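Changelog-adjacent note: as of this version, every example in the card shows the full chain rather than a window. The one below runs 724 residues end to end.
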Amino acid sequence: MLMPLQSVCSHAKVSLLLMLASTSFKQLSAQNDSIDSPTTAPTVTSIFNSSAPPTRTPTTSSPNNTASPTSSPTASLADSLPSTNLYSINWDQVDMNTVRKVDVVQTCLCDMTMDACDVNCCCDPDCEDQDREYFASNPDGSLACLAESPPAPELQFCSSESMRPVALPSSGSLAVVFAKKADELFISRSLCIVRDNNPELGRFFLDPVDGGDAALDTALEQNAASFLTPQEYESSSQYQAGNPIRVRYNTSAGWRMSTLRLPAGAWSGVCSESATQVVFGQNVPAAAEASHLSCLVPTTNLQADCARLFSGSSIHQLQVGEYVTSSIFHGVNVTSIEYVHWNGASQTLLANATVPTPTYDAATGECRDALHTLEYTLMYRSDRIVEAKASVKLTTAIRTRALEQHYQVRFVKEGEEGAARPTSGRPGYYPNFPLLAGLLEEEPVTLKQAIGRLVDGLPIPVARSDGRCGVNSLSPVRFGMNTAHRCSVPLTKSGLEQFCEGRATTTYNVYINLVTNGASLEADTAPTGVFFPISVQLLGGLFHEGGEVVSAGLSGRRVYVASWADERAENKAGWAEMGAPQLSEPEAMTWDPATSTCNNVVAGLAYEFLTARVGPVENPQHKVVDWRIKYVYGYWRFMDQRGALVDPFKMQEFWLNHTVQFVPMDQPGPKGVMPPAPPLFPKLSQDLFYPFSTSNAHGKPPSFIVLIFVCLVVSSTFVASRVT
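Full-length structure tokens:
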């Protein structure tokens, strides 16, 4: 209730609002054993490279010594995580004794990249004045700034404006409460709050210290499993955010002007040329989407389509305009060329070289040096593009299935190429944003520990374009999205028996590519699954390191997930290691010849995450408290036993299920947070005791000696006055 002037408001409540991107989740009632069709989520480029050497390697003669490698990579699993897929660590910023204080009230929520300027984010501290000059403008000439935070509710006090900090116990998380001074209007001045006697500053969710596996088990029991399906040119010659990128192509008829566009998958997943317009300042794809635009390139005549559909060499005919209407163009500098082998491993060829034109091998029916991945990096300075770079990956296309291609565009400010790190929220996670994950690393000299953050986040296996499991088929786990992914493993009856009894020694990535390529195999050929279940092999070395799969153990890698969505890799304390039970050697499989059934098969992985709310009840921030990955056991039965007798090479598809579940922690209700106790001495002006004290900081209470001296002087003066 509003009180007249000079009255006291005995109970004024101050509310806090936090901005948190939210989405409505469409829940599906689906269990691991009730999925009837494979999930064919878009496949992204593998975060990891398989170490198993291929049994045969494509060769070709291409110009400029960029032929496909004639020998297979021999790197072990310990080398299967190239540095290009991990962000570098600034060891100078690693402090093992510092605990980060998280401000759960952020006023610049559009700042989604660490140490780099986010386009149109006017409050981003990494943006300089010259950066803001090319931000998009409103019709009135003002900057079209992205939303920073919602307008907070205001309580008009008769006194001046103030801010009171709120410390949330457990982790030093911070919030603030603002008191707004009333304006000079008569009504406002008559109905303002003189004093607030409410001891609470608002109701907040406290930050839990540690969830633990017991809390995760409790949360899983309380939450039933559910899975979710996952411009024209302006008159100015300078680029502004949202302007199409001006390019030109060198054709037989001369230079052809156009704008930069990328292929993208239509509803069928087939590549649609020029489907995605690239505009200045906006990465493709965006942060909440997959790491690459992925689509399929089908062919009915591989020989005729090889050089036409799968070529990456045309990048050398492309030039990027420095300005929107400028005649200055920059050629694309190819910084690296990699070859992605048919077994999933990759090998770096040459940098600053010419991308070879694909060639068809009539003997094998393969298209060599076909484009696999094209990643553009456009370097800009204020309102212009100063350099265009490209990273290219090549592979071998086969006639039995469509080739999947991947595209990406990243805008990087000149001088920030190695520093920018995307976040997944500020500070809490936004729904559907990738979960930040990484591997524990240690600096050998100082023994400092930090997190080697994975570029694409925590991976989970998904199906290839043909529905089968593949080592290159990974997708990032997304916060708050309960999902189920399914892919198949083809096996003959005798192959299933070999697999079940542990006699198979072929790694899965080698096996599936032999099957896909139509290689001549024995009827009992099968992948191994004794030490490393197939689901773990699909992650390409995330949870294991060492030698060959058949002899190594699941003990080498320590995987962490960031508790907060904007956590820095240098602060190990802000990352949560996978809780028990750790992935270990699975239970032994048993074969039942009477029913052609393999029991105790690791038929998938279950990712489980415990989350918590921290901050004001109106809009709390979400963090990860604990997480783990568990084996999902089942049985595989070969159904057509009679058909297997007639045709021993007859295959059946066996399914692997990989699920993700986020469950909220069973937290106590929100608690009222009290302000700190008032200081013993009031805050005094710096020069109050001048010239007796000149070194005291502004606002700090005077020293005890000064107070005693002043008291003595005042007492003496009073006594003297009484005597006189």
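Structural remarks: Residues 1-84, 226-235, 546-554 have pLDDT under 50 and may be disordered.
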